[in-house]
Fold these 2 entries.
Entry 1:
Amino acid sequence: MAHLWKKHGLAYLFVAPAILGMLLVHYGPMLQGIYMGFLDLRLETLRLYLSAPFVGFANFQEILFDPSSTFRTGFVHAVRTTLLYALAVNTLTLSLGLLMAHVLNRPLVVRGLLRTLFLLPWVVPSYVVGLLWGFMWLKNGVINTLLVEILRLLPEKPHWLIGPLTFVAIVLPTVWRSWPFVMVTYLAALQSIPQELYEAARVDGATPWQRFRFITWPYLRPVTAILLLYGLLGTLYSFNIVYMMFGHGAGYPGEWGDLLMTNLFRNTFGMWNFGLGAAASTLYMLLTLALILLWYRAFHEDLRAR
Amino acid sequence: MLKKALSTLLFLLSVSFGQKTLEVWIMPNSGQPAEDFKALVAPFERANNVEVKVTVLDWGVAWTRITAAATSGVGPDITQLGTTWVGAISAMGVLEPLDDVLQALGGQQAYLPAVWNTTRLAGSRQATAMPWFSELRAFYYRTDALRSAGINPAQMFSSWQNFEAGLERLARSSFTDPETKQRLFPFCTAGKNSWDVLHNAAPWIWGAGGDIVRQVAGRWQSALNTPESLQGLYFFLSLAQKGLIPAESLEKNTAQIEADFQAGRCATFASGPWMIQRAQVPEAKGGFAERPAAKNLGVAPYPPGPKGRYTFFGGSNLAIFTFSKSKPLAKELLKYLGSLEAQLAYARATGMLPALRAAWNAPEIQGNPLMRTFIQAAQFGRTYPSLAGWGGVENLAVQHLGMAWDLVAQKKLTQEGLKDLMDKASNAINGALR
């Protein structure tokens, strides 16, 4: 032990502030949040805070098994929409990012300029994205003007912020904001692939698809794994865009716009059910951990250092 | 230079000799909320050798900040509360009783019953909040548009049937706004993407004899699915299905609808008294005085429904936290803010109505014909019950009304569909009230 301390003591000293910070601002509140899920913490008991009556698993039981619970209002729709949203956003983001990385991975004169321009949406904060696209999706907004009056792609102006099309209205801004980061990451990965491999493949008569399938893709799998993990976490915990687009949280985004996080926010802070809200957050965290476990099983080979 | 040095010295001396401070949280009630409030309390500060520190909370975060203060016991001496919040915060047992303050201001008869109801948790004998200013809704209309369509405003706003007939005439009218050269929409109102979804629907529900919640055998329960509530709601929502409310306004929020009216796109819309003030303020300062909408502005109360004429009555109250260390002084500040002069001064700054009934007789209010109509509309004002769990009720009502607006936008709303939604809303609300 003393030997280890002598060898790595300085390193431990350097990481100590970070660990302390994590304990204070991350794990402490997280444990407190989990504990709150076991309390009857409502408006009437809010003053008691962590001394509110301990109710064991009652909150978890209500969320999972009580169909009459007010906490489950709109819950099924929110689960469905969130899963479809995660699927749509990640599929589109990864595909578009990969495609554009390929386009930019060639000796273009304006590559640097294009890369900077493409990256711009990524630096816009997500709540601003929600606010701006909220204006653009209006019936007489710029998107309908473009689609109907200029390009004449649609016969009449649809409602994007009401009804089933709401789903499109939340997916596209998320993709618009997310794909540049994916593109830059893929571009960096593509540029690290040794060119000799492609040259050898060409000599052997490999088609472009075969070169992608057997050279490019194996190199991109680890990067894809990380991007998918970030994408999944980002979309499952997505909140800002929907919150800002539909009345800044005051209204209801509708069954095709309401996500798990906006549903959780409304049912917790709107209903003043903090114990139930904390229990639901814990359940979401477990669900996300399960998904990460699946992700790890699918990609753990790719994550090993080579 | 010398003057500045002397004032700094005086300030330091006053601090060192124990000048008292009072901390107040308010929301952005006026164009320059902190400055306007400081100007309002300046005479009180001088008279009592006290510094009033004001913090402006955005409405979006105010609830969280106030409940956090209530929970932790760390917060201001005085806080502003939306009238629908009084029940909830009072139920937490963190508000100082204010019966003596209200008595000093004239007691129950100094306020409208609708305003008096917001001073306490429903059923409580103890007042915990002092009415500060009132917000109520009335209809604004374009006098030029109605004149051109041959509509008498008094006739149009005399019943639901006449209101709808008036909107139909406006829809057929070829009148165009002199500035935009565009025809006007008959009636603009926000759909579901707004903070006041329930406030917009409530007058129609009440007008048909319905209610949001009502007491049955001593217990509060949802009344959204009663035949009367459904009748009122269906009348309001079907105006959109009939094309009298434009489809594009259904996805907008209230601020956008106000902007549409100011820009000359709407013939009628419902809003609060602040529009009268804005109509007198130039665009450079946040008003719309130069626009035709301001030069041709008319006000009318909501049209009466089959069971009466009602309008939503809200606003804000002030309350003192029990953990305040300067309660007597805080009560004095409340008495000052509730006095006739301070009520009128703050109404001037905010464009809201004073909460004190005596202030309504002031020449500056009675001398403004539009404001006078608002005062008349106030007698039809109705508030939500001051329940501890009102937040949950409103949240669930808004969610289900949002679903109804979704159906309206798709032109799929039927009476059966509306009943089904309101049955679901009522089940959820009854669950929350249990």
Entry 2:
Amino acid sequence: MAAYSDAPSKVAASSCFHCGNQFSYQPIVSTLFKDKVFCCTGCKSVYELLEEKGLCQYYDLNNNQGQSFSEMRSDLRFGFLDEPAIAKSLLSFDSAEQAVLSFHLPQMHCSACIYLLENFHRLVEGVLAARVDFPRRQLRLDFDPRILSVRKIVETLTAIGYEPQLNMAVNQKKAVDKESRHMLYRIGIAGFCFGNLMLLGFPEYLAEDGLNSPMIERAISILNVLLIVPVVTYVSKDYYISALAGLKQKILNIDVPISLGILALFFQSLYETLSATGSGYYDSLGGLLFFLMLGKYLQRKTFNRLSFEHDYRSFFPLASIKIVNGKEESINITQLVPGDYVLVRNEEIVPADAVLVSDKTLMDYSFVTGESHPVEKFRGDILFAGGKVIGGAVEAEVLKPASQSYLTQLWNDEAFKKLVDQPYQNITDRISKVFTPLVLALAIGGFAFWSISSLPLAIRVLVSVLIIACPCALALSAPFTYSTMMHRLGLQHLYLKNPDVIDRLTRIDTVVLDKTGTLTQTDLQTIDSSKLFLSDEDKELVKSACRNSTHPLSKLLYQYLPGNGSKKVDLFDEIKGRGILAIIDGQEVTIGSRTFVMEGLPQSGNPGLTAVYIAINNEVRGYVSFTNAWRSGLEEAASLLAARYRVVILSGDNDSEAPRLRQMFGTNTVMYFNQSPSDKLQKIQELQAQGRRVLMVGDGLNDAGALKKAEVGMAVAEDSSQFSPASDAILEGAKVPFLPVLLQYATNSRKILRNNLMMSLGYNAVGLSFALSGSLSPLVSAIMMPLSTITVVSLAVGQAHYRASRLDASMLKRKK
Amino acid sequence: MEIIAFLMGVSLLVAGFFLYAFIKSVKSGQYEDDYTPSVRMLFEDQAEETNP
């Protein structure tokens, strides 16, 4: 580390031409282009590469947008891609001259990224074409496998700042989204039929005494029937299927009255045409289906670039290094068997439960268990899959195949599988449970009443009631309101899996929070030195001692203490798992755990704290404690949440922070510490058994079970491109303190829906009075039905935007 | 009045053509990514570029 030892000389802050980062050390100047300065050689080489290939338009597209160069820790990282079996598993098409492969590049963020990546074939020889799908953050590359290897592609992408995500899940080939294509076909066909039916309806409505031309009248009726057939068959198919499925389970869902309405309209129109008694309701029916299809399409909307279905496979790497007869070999993780020796390097994830063979290592389990600090492991200790190795490379012997590790077991759990097909009843279903029987009763009642005097009139009433009561307004207000709200929440960095999640959010009454990574920021440590009593000179001693240590806490302490830490260390000893002992200027400095420093001395201090104790010449000088920093603004959020919901805290960490949490959340909040992943799942189940509807907010793999089990699982991610466990919603870490306001968006949606339902019930009441009196004409229906649809849709969207803007404003105020 | 019959035929043909075009565009995957093309069209074409 040459750059580390000769301290960079301070100069005025400049900003890197490539990445735009501000830095305050001697800039690196390009030898070819003297007027440009860079923060690192990486940025410089990217610039020079782009300049050479004439791709500098990149810099004009956005100001200073370059990806800051991620220093390649080692090219070795991608060594596993040389293994033909692994490289092949990434390809979606493969032949002798051409191969196709797709990567997910979460770093893509602006139009310049698209420009650069789509010109990838000019940067690298052998690439035939490059195509970006920005909403999904996908890059598709066609390349010539004779010239270019997969490894080379990955290395080049990484070098220019876009490291592809390579994990176990990339092996799953994605199918084309057939369902959403069919949806589009349906919208297209419904729109086509609707438009033409309306045109054909015009002469009918305009000419008072018919068209005076039997030939044209007949032509119009034939066309009407021809155009309506695809609408009532292909387009409406799903309604019949769902209605029948509901009836089979003895549930009257919303699709029952819709299907009845469609069929009533169709057969009534057909009857009128065949008997030449009227012109039918063709245009109303076409319009109805067209709007219903639009609503369904909106309901399916989601954030394409995010995946809400991650399981452990997306977290584990694709390959791992196996040691066979002293030689390193890349192997697919799924092929690891017990007894294999694996090599895990710094910052890499342990692929399967294994026993440590090397002397010692530090394991970061923060994502797996919620423990906030790395723990030391020694030879013979078990390393659980999912932990991250910190420090040097270590060897370990695999105990269980990757799919059966402690962590992945959660996903194989019986309870977990059952969760998948829990049908969810949204608000529309709940209302239709009351609404549908009522409509059927009215229809039959009307029929019975009129059949006393005239059977044809009675049939007419029956059909009219079914037509008018067709709950299209009901079916439309929820999708339009929810999808608008979902879009607005997306702007606030809360991403929902689908619009139905809002409905579930309106119904929760309990909020369960994880601590590490959710309420705290894992990447930021607060250091409390109020219990440490050192003179400036002593601090210098301690800093010098820490400089030699690789333990993360000593590194933090080194950064925290003032001074240079440049004293000569005469003797240095690091005792594993305990601390360090150093002799500097004839003074004995001991730094480390409580038991280590206070050996043979009276014990004091709180054993639950993550703290480093310091003694000089066997005299204890106090300790520094480390805590993860709470997210800013958490206090206000905590009191708001505790006031509105029942709050439960489930932490995998120890209880050292309990008093602070108690102070923020108040005395009614229940807290559990040292919770294992299955404990968390169980706690959620217990709450649900008490009839509570739970929102779980958590970030780590240890929350995965709880996230899935809860009514709404909300995963917290520092930025949305990061891995997050399967969930219904993804919330950006910085927005956690705004959770109470974000939940208000959902409760407001409910108010909007209520307004809309009142209105559509009003419409229905007017319409039903026409229908029950037997005087519903095609003209009235042709006006009433589209009018009610359009009012409902525009009111839903308008109100949602209005209420969301007010909440946006209230959040801005809180920020100030 | 016969002109109406003619017009109906023409309008159906025109609308039918649009429906056909729409279905074609869905089939070719144009609706899968509705953002990137809007950016892509703004890039300057470079003269020395030869299309693969």
